[in-house]
Amino acid sequence: xxxxxxALVQNQPGVLAHISGMLASRGFNIDSLAVGxxxxxxxxxxxxxxxxxxxxxxxxxxxxxxxITVVRVVDISSTTFVERxxxxxxxxxxxxxxxxxxxxxxxxxxxxxxxxxxxLMIEISGQESKVEAFIDLMRxxxxxxxxxxxxxxxxxxxxxxxxxx
Length: 165
Known about the structure:
Blueprint: E1 2-10, H1 15-25, E2 30-37, E3 43-51, H2 54-65, E4 70-75, E5 81-92, H3 95-107, E6 111-115, E7 119-126, H4 128-138, E8 143-148, E9 152-155
Antiparallel strand pairs: 1-3, 1-4, 2-3, 5-7, 5-8, 5-9, 6-7
Function: Catalyzes the conversion of 2 pyruvate molecules into acetolactate in the first common step of the biosynthetic pathway of the branched-amino acids such as leucine, isoleucine, and valine.
Pathway: Amino-acid biosynthesis; L-isoleucine biosynthesis; L-isoleucine from 2-oxobutanoate: step 1/4; Amino-acid biosynthesis; L-valine biosynthesis; L-valine from pyruvate: step 1/4
Pfam families: ACT_AHAS_ss, ALS_ss_C
């Protein structure tokens, strides 16, 4: 089962390395990872996706809770949350293909962010399934490069009381 975890951590050097090292040393693979400063400059939010059963998830949460720089860890998978991935994709595009690719990009609510004589670079954001579907549409044109962020997510509505500090 996939779990989306949101960890509030102290915004200082080495925190991400400490957390990822702890997970790796215990045999957990991180499917997706995103880190960024929060509304409080002293805290960062690490959003990561891991696979495992409830017992494994409980073990992850307990191990993360032992790390001094971790303020709080919440499994938001069981709540109603909004998630997004961001992708930049560079595809081969002849002048004749540009209109067709641009129309598909608009259908996916993406944007063309760079154009050269032979390529288009496109920005797409949304749920993972949307990003994956766009990748599949672009394969026949020739994907030259692709970069994706990790998943970011927030619980809908008022944040859980323990995260409102």
